[in-house]
Amino acid sequence: MASASLQFFAFILALFGVFGDIAATLLPNWKVNADVGSNIITAITQMQGLWMDCTWYSTGMFSCTLKYSILSLPVYIQAARTTMVLSCILSAFGICITTVGMKCTKLGGDSDSKSHACFAGGICFILAGICGLVPTSWYTREIISNFLDQTIPESSKHEPGGAVYTGFISAGFLLIAGVIFCSSCFNKQQGGWIYPPKQHHFPSAEQESNAGYNLKDYV
Question: How many other CB atoms are there within 10 angstroms of residue 41's CB atom?
Answer without folding.
Answer: 10
